[in-house]
Amino acid sequence: MDGIQGTQLIGEGAPVSGAAPDGCVRALIDAVGSLRPGTDSAGLIDQLRVLEDLKSAVAGLQARIAVAFDAVQRSAEADLGVPADEQGRGVAAQIALARREAPARGSRLHGLAKALVTEMPHTLAALDAGRLSEWRATLIVKETACLSAEDRCAVDEELAADTGAFDGAGDKAIISAARAAAYRRDPRTVTQRASHAATERCVSLRPAPDTMTYLTALLPVAQGVAVHAALSRHADTLRNDGGDARSRGQIMADALVERTTGTPAGIAGVEVQVVMTDRTLFQGDSEPARLPGYGIVPAAWARNLLAGNPGSSEEPGQAGQRRAGPDQAEQRQPGDRDFKVWLRRLFTAPGTGDLLAADSRSRLFPPGLRRFIQVRDDTCRTPYCDAPIRHFDHILPWYQGGITSLDNGAGLCEACNYTKELAGWTAQTGATRPGTRHMFEIRTPTGHSYRSTAPPLPGAHVNGDPSVLAAHYFGDVFHRRHRPELRQPA
C-alpha cells in the first residue's frame, strides 16, 4: 500500500511486526504440526483427548500472559503520568487482536484472565490440568462475577474444580453448582444481580443460514413467558378452529412479525438495502448479492425481494404466470404486495470491487460519502470485529491533516473508534492502488501492526477489462402504499 513504509504486511488481519514467539512455544507449535493421526481407534481417541488437554493448558497460560501484559502496560502508563483510572484502557483490544477475536470478545477474555489468575486458583489449576475447558471455566467465572474477591475465592475453594469435582459434568451442571455456591456465599448480592438483570433487556439480530435470521429478545422471565404463551394460544386457535395449513411454529413466527410491524409482510416504510451487480439484477446472473447487516444472499432471492415477493424461490414473473392466464395478467391476487424500488448505481473496478472515490472539504462525512463507506465496509473495519458500523472515522485524524475522503474514511463500531483514539494507537493509509481493495494499517502501543482490508463486493472476483467499470446497485425497498406516486413498473 502506498504511503506505508518499513513494515511487511503478512495476510489480512495478521500481526506484521513485533517480537518473534518464544523458542519453546515455537517448538511446541512445530511438534503439534508434525503429529499425524494414529491407525487404531483407541489411539485416535487418545490423541483427541490429549490435544483437548493441551488446549486447556494453553488457555491457562494465555490467561497468565494476559494478566502479565496488563500489569506491564499499566506500569508503563503510570511512568508516563497517565491517571490511574485511565490506565489499561486499550489492553483488552490488544488482547483481542493478538487472539484474532472481536474487541467485545477481547474484553471478556481479559476479564476471565484477571478472575482466574487473581481470585480463582483452583479453577485455573483445573484449566492447566485439562480438567476444564476454557468455556467451562468461563461459566464458573461468569456465575461468580457479582461476588467480592474474598467470596469468589471462597466459592472457588468450595467447588475445587482441580480435584475432578466436575469430571463428567455438563455445562448446566457446572452452572448450577457455581450459581448455588455463589448464592450460599452472598444471597443478597445474587438477588440484587437478578433484579438488575431486567435493565439489560434488549433485542438483537444475527444471521442464520439460507437467508434466515435469528431475532432474539432478552426479557424478564415473566414477560418472556407471557409473549410465548400469547403466540402459542394464537397458533393453537388458528390450527384448531380455522384449519390453518401452516405449522405451529410458522404461525407463531408470522404472528410475531405482523404484531410488531403492523403488516403481514413485515416491511412497512423500512429501508432494506441490497447490493448486487447489474448482471444479477437485469440478466439473471447467479452472482450472489449482499444484504447489509446480514451478509451474502442468493441472486434469485435478491431479485424476488426487489420484485416484491420476498421469501419465494421462484424468479420474478414465474409466480404471476402461474396465477393468471393471458387475459388475467393485470389482476391482483390476494396477498400481493406493492413495493417501490429505488436504484442507485455504484461503479466499481472489475475484479476488485473498489468503489470510486469521492472527496469532500467538510469536517464530517456527508450523507453520500457515508453511504459509500457503509457499502464498501459493511461492518466494523477493525480486524476480527464484525460489529455494526456506528461511526464514520477519519483513518488519519482530521486534526493531523487527514481529509474527508473515501480513501481516508473507515466504518467503525463505537468501541473500536474510541480505542483507536487512545494514546499509542495509530492508523495510516495511502492511496489505494488500482486493482486492490481499500486497505489501511492499525498499529497498537506495543508496535504490532494489523492490516484491515475492505470485504469484496458481489462480483469482485469477475475478471474484465480494467478500462470498463462494472455497475452495482442499491435496492432500497419500501412498501409502496406509503408513496404510491413513486411506484415504478416491475
Automatic annotation (TrEMBL):
Q: Matching InterPro entries, A to Z? A: DUF222, HNH, HNH_nuc
Q: Which UniProt keywords apply?
A: Endonuclease, Hydrolase, Nuclease
User: What SMART domains would the database entry show?
Assistant: HNHc
Source organism's superkingdom? Answer: Bacteria
Which residues does the annotated region (Disordered) include?
307-335
Q: Which residue range or ranges hold the HNH nuclease domain?
A: 368-418
Instruction: Tell me if Hydrolase is a UniProt keyword of this record.
Output: yes
* One Gene Ontology molecular-function label: endonuclease activity
The record's family statement is: Belongs to the Rv1128c/1148c/1588c/1702c/1945/3466 family.
What is the protein's given name?
HNH endonuclease signature motif containing protein
* Gene source species: Arthrobacter gyeryongensis
